[in-house]
Design a protein that fits this description.
The chain is an alpha+beta fold. The protein has one domain (about 5-80). It is about 35% helix and about 20% strand. It contains two helices and three strands. It has helices at about 5-20, 60-70, and strands at about 25-30, 35-40, 50. A three-stranded antiparallel sheet has the order 1-2-3. The protein is elongated and about 45 Å long.
């Protein structure tokens, strides 16, 4: 399988951008699957792995998972969380 290095680097940069904008999530780009994969940093009562080929579809799905957690996941925007 041939993979264009420039495309992979562009996708990895997009994954870093998504992670920076969604600090409660770890975001990676799968070279083989060609998908963006998100893992929750917060403890949720269910397996929270979200994936998509189109990165623009991920933020609303991540918010839906965050909003469904009980109790609500603290927001880093409110100073509720500290990152090491």
């Amino acid at each position: 399988m041939s993979t264009d290095v420039a495309d992979v680097e562009t996708a990895r940069a997009e994954a870093r951008r998504l992670e920076a904008g969604n600090p409660l999530w770890i975001v990676v780009f799968g070279v083989s699957s060609r998908e963006f994969v998100c893992f929750s940093r917060a403890s949720v009562p269910f397996r929270a792995i979200v994936f998509a080929k189109d990165p623009d579809t991920l933020p609303p799905r991540l918010r839906a998972i965050e909003n469904s957690a009980t109790p609500p996941i603290p927001s880093p925007d409110n100073g509720d969380m500290t990152y090491a």
